[in-house]
Amino acid sequence: MYFLGIDTSTTSSKALLIDEKGEVIAVASSPHTLQTPKPLWSEQNPLEWWDAVAASIKSVLEKANISGERIAAVGLTGQMHGLVLLDEVGNVLRPAILWNDQRTQSQCDEIHRRIGKEKFIQIAGNLALTGFTAPKILWVKENEPEIYKKAKHVLLPKDYIRYKLTGEYAMDKADGAGTILFDLKSREWSDEVLSALDIPRAWMPKTFEGTEFTGHITNEAASLTGLKVGTPVAAGGGDQAAGAVGVGAVEVGIVGLTVGTSGVVFATTPSALIEPAGRLHAFCHAVPNMWHFMGVMLSAAGSLQWYRDMLASNMSFDELLKEAGSIPAGSEGLQFLPYLSGERTPHPDPLARGAFIGLTLRHSRAHMTRAVLEGVSFGLKDSFTLIQNAGLGAITQVRASGGGTKSILWRQILASVLDAELVTVNTTEGAAYGAALLAGVGAGVWADVISACKASVKITGSTQPDLFQVDAYKKSYSLYQELYPILKPSFEKM
User: Would you put residue 412 in left (φ > 0), alpha (ψ -120 to 50) or beta?
Assistant: First the structure.
Protein backbone atom coordinates (compact mmCIF):
# COMPACT_ATOMS: atom_id res chain seq x y z
CA MET A 1 0.00 0.00 0.00
CA TYR A 2 1.37 3.40 -1.03
CA PHE A 3 0.33 7.01 -0.55
CA LEU A 4 0.86 9.87 -2.95
CA GLY A 5 1.51 13.47 -1.89
CA ILE A 6 1.12 16.18 -4.53
CA ASP A 7 2.56 19.66 -3.96
CA THR A 8 1.59 22.43 -6.37
CA SER A 9 4.15 25.08 -5.45
CA THR A 10 5.03 28.31 -7.22
CA THR A 11 8.04 26.79 -8.96
CA SER A 12 6.93 23.23 -9.70
CA SER A 13 4.48 20.41 -9.12
CA LYS A 14 5.97 17.59 -7.07
CA ALA A 15 4.66 14.04 -6.67
CA LEU A 16 6.02 12.04 -3.73
CA LEU A 17 5.35 8.39 -2.97
CA ILE A 18 5.60 6.83 0.52
CA ASP A 19 4.89 3.36 1.87
CA GLU A 20 3.05 2.24 5.02
CA LYS A 21 6.17 2.87 7.13
CA GLY A 22 6.38 6.47 5.96
CA GLU A 23 9.50 5.79 3.87
CA VAL A 24 9.91 7.89 0.74
CA ILE A 25 9.91 5.59 -2.30
CA ALA A 26 10.21 8.07 -5.16
CA VAL A 27 9.88 11.76 -6.00
CA ALA A 28 9.26 13.52 -9.32
CA SER A 29 8.62 17.13 -10.22
CA SER A 30 7.75 19.25 -13.25
CA PRO A 31 8.47 22.99 -13.50
CA HIS A 32 6.04 25.92 -13.70
CA THR A 33 6.51 29.27 -15.37
CA LEU A 34 5.69 32.58 -13.68
CA GLN A 35 4.20 35.65 -15.33
CA THR A 36 4.67 39.24 -14.12
CA PRO A 37 2.67 41.22 -16.71
CA LYS A 38 2.85 44.44 -14.66
CA PRO A 39 4.95 45.69 -11.74
CA LEU A 40 3.89 44.02 -8.46
CA TRP A 41 1.83 41.41 -10.35
CA SER A 42 2.47 37.65 -10.05
CA GLU A 43 0.35 35.17 -12.00
CA GLN A 44 0.32 31.59 -13.29
CA ASN A 45 -1.82 29.54 -15.64
CA PRO A 46 -3.72 26.84 -13.69
CA LEU A 47 -3.80 24.63 -16.79
CA GLU A 48 -0.02 24.52 -16.64
CA TRP A 49 -0.23 23.27 -13.04
CA TRP A 50 -2.49 20.46 -14.16
CA ASP A 51 -0.17 19.42 -16.99
CA ALA A 52 2.76 19.45 -14.53
CA VAL A 53 0.86 17.41 -11.94
CA ALA A 54 -0.18 14.79 -14.47
CA ALA A 55 3.40 14.51 -15.74
CA SER A 56 4.82 14.25 -12.21
CA ILE A 57 2.38 11.53 -11.17
CA LYS A 58 3.18 9.44 -14.24
CA SER A 59 6.89 9.98 -13.66
CA VAL A 60 6.86 9.02 -9.97
CA LEU A 61 4.93 5.82 -10.71
CA GLU A 62 7.50 4.93 -13.37
CA LYS A 63 10.41 5.68 -11.02
CA ALA A 64 8.90 3.47 -8.31
CA ASN A 65 7.96 0.81 -10.89
CA ILE A 66 4.49 0.41 -9.45
CA SER A 67 1.03 0.77 -10.96
CA GLY A 68 -1.62 3.25 -9.95
CA GLU A 69 -3.63 0.29 -8.63
CA ARG A 70 -1.34 0.19 -5.59
CA ILE A 71 -1.92 3.81 -4.53
CA ALA A 72 -4.31 3.69 -1.58
CA ALA A 73 -4.92 7.45 -1.30
CA VAL A 74 -3.73 10.83 -2.53
CA GLY A 75 -3.06 13.94 -0.41
CA LEU A 76 -2.82 17.49 -1.74
CA THR A 77 -0.84 20.56 -0.77
CA GLY A 78 0.43 23.67 -2.50
CA GLN A 79 1.04 27.40 -2.48
CA MET A 80 -1.44 29.23 -0.29
CA HIS A 81 -3.70 32.26 -0.89
CA GLY A 82 -3.74 32.21 -4.71
CA LEU A 83 -7.02 33.03 -6.48
CA VAL A 84 -8.40 30.65 -9.10
CA LEU A 85 -11.73 31.80 -10.57
CA LEU A 86 -13.88 29.33 -12.51
CA ASP A 87 -17.13 29.72 -14.42
CA GLU A 88 -20.22 27.58 -13.89
CA VAL A 89 -18.80 24.63 -15.83
CA GLY A 90 -15.33 24.77 -14.31
CA ASN A 91 -13.43 26.72 -16.96
CA VAL A 92 -10.59 28.97 -15.76
CA LEU A 93 -11.60 32.63 -16.24
CA ARG A 94 -8.20 34.33 -15.85
CA PRO A 95 -4.64 33.52 -14.75
CA ALA A 96 -4.35 32.73 -11.05
CA ILE A 97 -3.29 35.68 -8.88
CA LEU A 98 -0.58 34.34 -6.57
CA TRP A 99 0.37 34.72 -2.91
CA ASN A 100 3.28 37.07 -3.72
CA ASP A 101 1.21 39.43 -5.86
CA GLN A 102 1.20 42.96 -4.40
CA ARG A 103 -1.49 44.81 -6.40
CA THR A 104 -4.28 44.80 -3.77
CA GLN A 105 -3.32 47.26 -1.02
CA SER A 106 -6.35 49.48 -1.66
CA GLN A 107 -8.63 46.44 -1.43
CA CYS A 108 -7.02 45.49 1.90
CA ASP A 109 -7.73 48.99 3.18
CA GLU A 110 -11.33 48.65 1.97
CA ILE A 111 -11.79 45.37 3.86
CA HIS A 112 -10.67 47.04 7.08
CA ARG A 113 -12.92 50.02 6.38
CA ARG A 114 -16.04 47.93 5.75
CA ILE A 115 -15.66 45.57 8.69
CA GLY A 116 -13.39 47.47 11.07
CA LYS A 117 -9.78 46.41 11.51
CA GLU A 118 -10.06 45.14 15.09
CA LYS A 119 -13.30 43.28 14.41
CA PHE A 120 -11.87 41.73 11.27
CA ILE A 121 -8.81 40.44 13.16
CA GLN A 122 -11.10 38.82 15.73
CA ILE A 123 -13.09 37.04 13.00
CA ALA A 124 -10.36 36.02 10.56
CA GLY A 125 -7.38 35.94 12.93
CA ASN A 126 -5.37 38.15 10.58
CA LEU A 127 -4.97 41.57 9.13
CA ALA A 128 -6.04 41.92 5.51
CA LEU A 129 -2.73 41.78 3.63
CA THR A 130 -1.99 41.84 -0.09
CA GLY A 131 -0.95 38.19 -0.16
CA PHE A 132 -4.33 36.84 0.92
CA THR A 133 -7.20 35.70 -1.32
CA ALA A 134 -10.04 38.01 -0.25
CA PRO A 135 -8.54 41.29 -1.55
CA LYS A 136 -7.75 39.56 -4.85
CA ILE A 137 -11.46 38.81 -5.34
CA LEU A 138 -12.29 42.46 -4.70
CA TRP A 139 -9.60 43.53 -7.17
CA VAL A 140 -11.14 41.40 -9.94
CA LYS A 141 -14.58 42.83 -9.16
CA GLU A 142 -13.28 46.40 -9.42
CA ASN A 143 -10.90 45.98 -12.36
CA GLU A 144 -12.26 43.08 -14.44
CA PRO A 145 -16.07 43.27 -14.04
CA GLU A 146 -16.79 41.12 -17.10
CA ILE A 147 -14.75 38.27 -15.65
CA TYR A 148 -16.29 38.77 -12.23
CA LYS A 149 -19.81 38.42 -13.72
CA LYS A 150 -18.90 34.98 -15.10
CA ALA A 151 -17.39 33.71 -11.82
CA LYS A 152 -19.15 30.88 -10.00
CA HIS A 153 -16.37 29.10 -8.07
CA VAL A 154 -13.40 30.28 -5.98
CA LEU A 155 -10.56 27.80 -5.49
CA LEU A 156 -6.95 27.84 -4.32
CA PRO A 157 -4.14 26.37 -6.46
CA LYS A 158 -4.09 22.87 -4.98
CA ASP A 159 -7.90 22.78 -4.99
CA TYR A 160 -7.95 23.39 -8.72
CA ILE A 161 -5.82 20.24 -8.96
CA ARG A 162 -8.38 18.51 -6.73
CA TYR A 163 -11.11 19.59 -9.13
CA LYS A 164 -9.17 18.20 -12.09
CA LEU A 165 -8.53 14.93 -10.26
CA THR A 166 -12.01 14.39 -8.81
CA GLY A 167 -14.47 16.80 -10.41
CA GLU A 168 -15.28 18.12 -6.91
CA TYR A 169 -15.16 21.69 -5.64
CA ALA A 170 -13.63 21.33 -2.17
CA MET A 171 -11.00 22.87 0.12
CA ASP A 172 -9.29 21.98 3.38
CA LYS A 173 -9.91 24.14 6.45
CA ALA A 174 -6.27 25.22 6.82
CA ASP A 175 -6.22 26.75 3.34
CA GLY A 176 -9.75 28.05 3.83
CA ALA A 177 -8.56 30.08 6.80
CA GLY A 178 -5.75 31.42 4.62
CA THR A 179 -8.25 33.14 2.33
CA ILE A 180 -9.20 35.38 5.35
CA LEU A 181 -12.85 34.70 4.47
CA PHE A 182 -13.07 32.16 7.31
CA ASP A 183 -14.40 32.48 10.81
CA LEU A 184 -11.30 31.15 12.52
CA LYS A 185 -13.03 29.91 15.66
CA SER A 186 -15.82 28.01 13.90
CA ARG A 187 -13.51 26.66 11.15
CA GLU A 188 -15.97 27.62 8.43
CA TRP A 189 -16.75 30.42 5.98
CA SER A 190 -17.73 33.67 7.68
CA ASP A 191 -21.13 34.76 6.43
CA GLU A 192 -20.50 38.15 8.03
CA VAL A 193 -17.27 38.75 6.09
CA LEU A 194 -18.66 37.37 2.82
CA SER A 195 -21.73 39.59 3.15
CA ALA A 196 -19.69 42.69 3.97
CA LEU A 197 -17.51 42.12 0.90
CA ASP A 198 -20.45 41.16 -1.38
CA ILE A 199 -18.87 37.79 -2.21
CA PRO A 200 -21.57 35.15 -2.89
CA ARG A 201 -21.51 32.30 -0.37
CA ALA A 202 -22.33 29.89 -3.21
CA TRP A 203 -18.91 30.57 -4.77
CA MET A 204 -17.09 29.08 -1.80
CA PRO A 205 -16.48 25.31 -1.80
CA LYS A 206 -17.31 22.90 1.00
CA THR A 207 -14.42 22.60 3.46
CA PHE A 208 -12.93 19.50 5.09
CA GLU A 209 -10.41 18.58 7.78
CA GLY A 210 -7.01 17.66 6.38
CA THR A 211 -7.41 13.89 6.70
CA GLU A 212 -10.95 13.68 5.31
CA PHE A 213 -11.55 12.39 1.79
CA THR A 214 -13.02 14.96 -0.59
CA GLY A 215 -13.57 12.91 -3.74
CA HIS A 216 -12.19 10.14 -5.94
CA ILE A 217 -10.08 9.93 -9.08
CA THR A 218 -12.24 10.24 -12.20
CA ASN A 219 -11.95 8.25 -15.42
CA GLU A 220 -10.43 11.23 -17.22
CA ALA A 221 -7.87 11.92 -14.48
CA ALA A 222 -6.96 8.22 -14.34
CA SER A 223 -6.24 8.13 -18.06
CA LEU A 224 -3.97 11.19 -17.80
CA THR A 225 -2.06 10.23 -14.64
CA GLY A 226 -1.99 6.46 -14.40
CA LEU A 227 -3.87 6.45 -11.11
CA LYS A 228 -6.74 4.04 -10.50
CA VAL A 229 -10.32 5.22 -10.98
CA GLY A 230 -11.94 5.66 -7.57
CA THR A 231 -8.72 6.28 -5.59
CA PRO A 232 -9.68 8.60 -2.70
CA VAL A 233 -8.22 12.10 -2.44
CA ALA A 234 -7.71 13.61 1.00
CA ALA A 235 -8.26 17.30 1.76
CA GLY A 236 -4.60 17.88 2.69
CA GLY A 237 -3.49 21.40 3.57
CA GLY A 238 -1.71 24.52 2.41
CA ASP A 239 2.05 24.19 2.06
CA GLN A 240 2.88 25.54 5.52
CA ALA A 241 0.36 23.37 7.38
CA ALA A 242 1.29 20.26 5.38
CA GLY A 243 4.97 21.10 5.81
CA ALA A 244 4.47 21.22 9.58
CA VAL A 245 2.98 17.72 9.40
CA GLY A 246 6.00 16.69 7.34
CA VAL A 247 8.42 17.61 10.15
CA GLY A 248 6.15 16.56 13.02
CA ALA A 249 5.21 20.05 14.28
CA VAL A 250 1.73 18.89 15.19
CA GLU A 251 1.72 19.21 18.99
CA VAL A 252 1.65 22.22 21.28
CA GLY A 253 5.19 23.20 22.29
CA ILE A 254 6.84 21.76 19.17
CA VAL A 255 7.51 24.57 16.71
CA GLY A 256 8.45 24.28 13.05
CA LEU A 257 11.17 26.64 11.82
CA THR A 258 11.95 26.97 8.12
CA VAL A 259 15.03 28.97 7.14
CA GLY A 260 14.78 29.13 3.38
CA THR A 261 14.90 32.22 1.19
CA SER A 262 12.17 33.46 3.51
CA GLY A 263 11.71 32.32 7.10
CA VAL A 264 8.62 30.76 8.67
CA VAL A 265 7.85 30.04 12.32
CA PHE A 266 4.93 27.62 12.74
CA ALA A 267 3.39 26.87 16.16
CA THR A 268 0.45 24.52 16.76
CA THR A 269 -2.22 25.90 19.09
CA PRO A 270 -5.00 23.93 20.85
CA SER A 271 -7.59 26.63 20.20
CA ALA A 272 -8.11 29.63 17.95
CA LEU A 273 -5.62 31.96 19.62
CA ILE A 274 -5.31 35.39 17.99
CA GLU A 275 -2.52 37.95 18.32
CA PRO A 276 -4.53 41.11 19.17
CA ALA A 277 -2.85 43.38 16.62
CA GLY A 278 -2.80 40.74 13.87
CA ARG A 279 1.00 40.72 13.73
CA LEU A 280 0.97 36.91 13.61
CA HIS A 281 -1.03 34.87 11.14
CA ALA A 282 -3.58 32.63 12.85
CA PHE A 283 -4.98 29.79 10.74
CA CYS A 284 -6.62 26.40 11.09
CA HIS A 285 -4.13 23.51 11.09
CA ALA A 286 -4.26 20.56 8.69
CA VAL A 287 -4.49 18.49 11.89
CA PRO A 288 -8.21 18.08 12.60
CA ASN A 289 -9.57 20.51 15.20
CA MET A 290 -6.20 22.20 15.77
CA TRP A 291 -5.01 25.69 14.85
CA HIS A 292 -1.66 27.38 14.43
CA PHE A 293 0.23 30.64 14.61
CA MET A 294 2.59 31.54 11.80
CA GLY A 295 5.19 34.27 11.58
CA VAL A 296 6.86 35.07 8.27
CA MET A 297 10.03 37.04 7.60
CA LEU A 298 10.68 37.83 3.95
CA SER A 299 14.48 37.54 3.78
CA ALA A 300 16.00 34.80 5.95
CA ALA A 301 18.60 32.67 4.15
CA GLY A 302 17.95 35.11 1.33
CA SER A 303 19.84 37.71 3.41
CA LEU A 304 22.92 35.49 3.53
CA GLN A 305 22.59 34.76 -0.18
CA TRP A 306 22.46 38.50 -0.95
CA TYR A 307 25.42 39.20 1.35
CA ARG A 308 27.58 36.52 -0.27
CA ASP A 309 26.59 37.46 -3.84
CA MET A 310 27.09 41.20 -3.38
CA LEU A 311 30.01 41.44 -0.95
CA ALA A 312 31.90 38.13 -1.04
CA SER A 313 31.14 36.47 -4.37
CA ASN A 314 34.64 34.96 -4.56
CA MET A 315 34.01 32.90 -1.41
CA SER A 316 31.92 29.84 -0.70
CA PHE A 317 29.30 29.82 2.03
CA ASP A 318 31.43 27.34 3.97
CA GLU A 319 34.41 29.71 3.89
CA LEU A 320 32.30 32.65 5.06
CA LEU A 321 30.73 30.67 7.88
CA LYS A 322 34.08 29.31 9.03
CA GLU A 323 35.33 32.89 9.42
CA ALA A 324 32.17 33.92 11.27
CA GLY A 325 32.65 31.09 13.75
CA SER A 326 35.69 32.88 15.18
CA ILE A 327 33.63 35.95 16.17
CA PRO A 328 32.00 36.09 19.63
CA ALA A 329 28.22 36.11 20.09
CA GLY A 330 26.88 39.60 19.49
CA SER A 331 29.44 40.40 16.75
CA GLU A 332 31.06 42.94 19.09
CA GLY A 333 28.13 45.32 18.84
CA LEU A 334 27.43 45.06 15.10
CA GLN A 335 23.75 44.67 14.16
CA PHE A 336 22.13 43.65 10.87
CA LEU A 337 18.49 44.38 10.01
CA PRO A 338 17.31 41.72 7.52
CA TYR A 339 14.56 43.79 5.89
CA LEU A 340 15.96 43.50 2.36
CA SER A 341 12.50 42.83 0.88
CA GLY A 342 10.49 44.83 3.39
CA GLU A 343 9.01 42.77 6.22
CA ARG A 344 5.88 40.86 7.19
CA THR A 345 6.20 39.69 10.84
CA PRO A 346 6.15 41.50 13.20
CA HIS A 347 6.38 44.63 11.03
CA PRO A 348 4.03 44.40 8.02
CA ASP A 349 5.98 47.11 6.25
CA PRO A 350 6.93 46.93 2.55
CA LEU A 351 9.06 50.07 3.03
CA ALA A 352 11.36 48.59 5.69
CA ARG A 353 15.01 48.46 4.61
CA GLY A 354 18.02 46.32 5.44
CA ALA A 355 20.96 47.84 7.31
CA PHE A 356 24.26 47.21 9.06
CA ILE A 357 24.32 49.34 12.21
CA GLY A 358 27.24 49.93 14.56
CA LEU A 359 30.17 49.47 12.17
CA THR A 360 33.59 50.45 13.51
CA LEU A 361 37.16 50.12 12.26
CA ARG A 362 37.44 46.96 14.35
CA HIS A 363 34.72 45.12 12.42
CA SER A 364 35.84 42.69 9.73
CA ARG A 365 34.09 40.65 7.06
CA ALA A 366 33.77 37.85 9.62
CA HIS A 367 31.91 40.21 11.97
CA MET A 368 29.57 41.22 9.17
CA THR A 369 28.85 37.60 8.22
CA ARG A 370 28.05 36.67 11.80
CA ALA A 371 25.89 39.78 12.16
CA VAL A 372 23.81 38.61 9.17
CA LEU A 373 23.27 35.21 10.81
CA GLU A 374 22.37 36.86 14.11
CA GLY A 375 20.10 39.49 12.55
CA VAL A 376 18.05 36.84 10.75
CA SER A 377 17.90 34.82 13.98
CA PHE A 378 16.65 37.90 15.86
CA GLY A 379 14.03 38.46 13.17
CA LEU A 380 12.80 34.90 13.67
CA LYS A 381 12.83 35.40 17.43
CA ASP A 382 10.39 38.29 16.92
CA SER A 383 7.82 35.68 15.84
CA PHE A 384 8.66 33.39 18.76
CA THR A 385 8.24 36.31 21.17
CA LEU A 386 4.84 37.19 19.73
CA ILE A 387 3.74 33.55 19.86
CA GLN A 388 4.67 33.23 23.52
CA ASN A 389 3.11 36.58 24.44
CA ALA A 390 -0.12 35.62 22.64
CA GLY A 391 -0.74 32.82 25.11
CA LEU A 392 0.91 29.70 23.72
CA GLY A 393 3.31 29.25 26.62
CA ALA A 394 6.57 27.33 26.69
CA ILE A 395 8.30 26.21 23.49
CA THR A 396 9.99 22.89 24.23
CA GLN A 397 11.49 22.02 20.86
CA VAL A 398 12.14 23.64 17.49
CA ARG A 399 12.13 21.43 14.40
CA ALA A 400 14.35 23.08 11.82
CA SER A 401 14.35 22.72 8.05
CA GLY A 402 15.48 24.68 5.02
CA GLY A 403 18.89 25.41 3.54
CA GLY A 404 19.92 27.82 6.31
CA THR A 405 19.73 25.11 8.97
CA LYS A 406 22.37 22.98 7.24
CA SER A 407 24.99 25.20 8.86
CA ILE A 408 26.21 23.97 12.28
CA LEU A 409 27.11 27.53 13.23
CA TRP A 410 23.72 28.95 12.27
CA ARG A 411 21.91 26.17 14.12
CA GLN A 412 23.91 27.00 17.25
CA ILE A 413 23.14 30.71 16.92
CA LEU A 414 19.44 29.95 16.43
CA ALA A 415 19.28 27.59 19.41
CA SER A 416 20.95 30.17 21.63
CA VAL A 417 18.92 33.14 20.37
CA LEU A 418 15.66 31.20 20.78
CA ASP A 419 16.86 29.54 24.01
CA ALA A 420 15.35 26.24 22.90
CA GLU A 421 16.51 22.84 21.64
CA LEU A 422 16.84 22.87 17.86
CA VAL A 423 16.46 19.51 16.13
CA THR A 424 16.69 18.24 12.58
CA VAL A 425 14.56 15.39 11.24
CA ASN A 426 14.86 12.64 8.68
CA THR A 427 12.31 14.09 6.25
CA THR A 428 13.38 16.73 3.76
CA GLU A 429 10.46 16.77 1.33
CA GLY A 430 8.31 19.02 3.51
CA ALA A 431 4.80 19.73 2.33
CA ALA A 432 4.50 16.85 -0.15
CA TYR A 433 5.53 14.40 2.57
CA GLY A 434 3.00 15.91 4.98
CA ALA A 435 0.27 15.60 2.35
CA ALA A 436 1.11 11.92 1.88
CA LEU A 437 0.92 11.34 5.66
CA LEU A 438 -2.47 13.05 5.79
CA ALA A 439 -3.68 10.70 3.05
CA GLY A 440 -2.37 7.73 5.03
CA VAL A 441 -4.29 8.82 8.12
CA GLY A 442 -7.41 9.19 6.01
CA ALA A 443 -6.92 5.64 4.76
CA GLY A 444 -6.62 4.33 8.32
CA VAL A 445 -2.95 3.27 8.28
CA TRP A 446 -2.32 5.59 11.24
CA ALA A 447 -4.94 6.41 13.86
CA ASP A 448 -4.31 10.14 13.71
CA VAL A 449 -1.80 12.72 12.51
CA ILE A 450 0.25 12.70 15.73
CA SER A 451 0.60 8.90 15.48
CA ALA A 452 1.62 9.17 11.83
CA CYS A 453 4.31 11.72 12.65
CA LYS A 454 5.67 9.75 15.62
CA ALA A 455 5.91 6.64 13.47
CA SER A 456 7.47 8.35 10.45
CA VAL A 457 9.37 11.50 11.49
CA LYS A 458 12.62 10.79 13.33
CA ILE A 459 15.03 13.21 14.97
CA THR A 460 18.47 13.07 13.34
CA GLY A 461 20.32 15.75 15.29
CA SER A 462 20.00 18.11 18.24
CA THR A 463 21.55 21.49 19.07
CA GLN A 464 21.23 22.79 22.62
CA PRO A 465 21.44 26.48 23.59
CA ASP A 466 24.88 27.66 24.69
CA LEU A 467 24.29 29.29 28.09
CA PHE A 468 26.99 31.94 27.56
CA GLN A 469 25.55 32.83 24.16
CA VAL A 470 22.01 32.92 25.57
CA ASP A 471 22.98 35.74 27.94
CA ALA A 472 24.88 37.63 25.24
CA TYR A 473 22.01 37.37 22.80
CA LYS A 474 19.43 38.62 25.28
CA LYS A 475 21.34 41.91 25.34
CA SER A 476 21.85 42.04 21.56
CA TYR A 477 18.22 41.17 20.85
CA SER A 478 16.99 43.90 23.17
CA LEU A 479 18.95 46.45 21.11
CA TYR A 480 17.77 44.88 17.84
CA GLN A 481 14.13 45.40 18.92
CA GLU A 482 14.77 49.12 19.40
CA LEU A 483 16.13 49.72 15.89
CA TYR A 484 13.09 49.31 13.62
CA PRO A 485 10.83 51.77 15.49
CA ILE A 486 13.64 54.33 15.49
CA LEU A 487 14.38 53.89 11.76
CA LYS A 488 10.81 53.51 10.47
CA PRO A 489 10.39 57.26 9.73
CA SER A 490 13.67 57.23 7.81
CA PHE A 491 12.59 54.18 5.82
CA GLU A 492 9.43 56.01 4.79
CA LYS A 493 11.43 59.06 3.65
CA MET A 494 13.74 56.81 1.63
Answer: alpha
